[in-house]
Amino acid sequence: MCTCGKDMDTRIAEIMACLKAKDLDSLEVGTYREADDWYYMVQSYNTKPVEACRLESHEQYADIQWVLKGEERLDIVATEGLEAEEPYNAEKDVAFWKAPACMMQMILTDGGYAVLYPENAHRPGRAVGEPSPVRKIVVKVKL
Fold first, then answer.
1. End-to-end alpha-carbon separation of the chain, Å?
2. Strand 71-78's sheet: what is its strand order?
3. In this predicted model, what pLDDT tens digit does every residue of 9-59 receive, in sequence order?
4. How high does pLDDT run on average in the chain?
5. DSSP state, 48?
6. Which of 23, 40, 60, 110 has the fewest beta carbons under 10 Å from its own?
7. How far apart are CA 47 and CA 97, in angstroms?
8. Who contacts 28 (Cβ-Cβ below 8 Å, separation ≥6)?
9. Each residue of 107-139: pLDDT tens digit?
């Protein structure tokens, strides 16, 4: 299912509908390409303390961070004015940033997701309290 040529809200709604129709619990950890303009990664890991998580952003893809099972804290801040920790790597489509003192925090629990655009630096994988297991889908939607 190619979502090219549609506005981003429509594309994301169609992608989420496509994924919700799958038996995501049966999928193995790994990367799955659905179309030229989007793919997703099934992840399973334990959340980490803040010191072990990095603030990142992407330019070529929007991220959908979707927690299927578990609980994860996601920190979000605008990239404008941030100081680079590692400059943008076009091959990996990622830049890393030094974390500012103040960021928005979101707790994603079973079924919760966040859509993140290039102007949104985000620090996924954070523990809410003690580290705990999470099963998650990260969707990459080509801009």
1. 16
2. 84-89, 94-97, 55-57, 120-126, 71-78, 104-109
3. 999 999 999 999 999 999 999 999 999 999 999 999 999 999 999 999 999
4. 95
5. B
6. 23
7. 20
8. 42
9. 999 999 999 999 999 999 999 999 999 999 999
Give the β-pairing of 84-89 and 94-97: antiparallel
Residue 3 has pLDDT above 80, yes or no: no
Indicate the pTM of the whole model.
0.92
Neighbours of 2 (CB within 10 A): 12
Q: Please give the angle made by the CA atoms of 117, 89 and 45, to the nearest 5 degrees.
A: 65
Q: Report residue 13 CA to chain centroid gap.
A: 16
How far is residue 80's CA from residue 120's CA, in Å, rounded to a whole number? Answer: 9
How far apart are the C-alpha atoms of 4 and 7, rounded to whole Å? 8
Adjacent-strand bridge partners of 134? 45
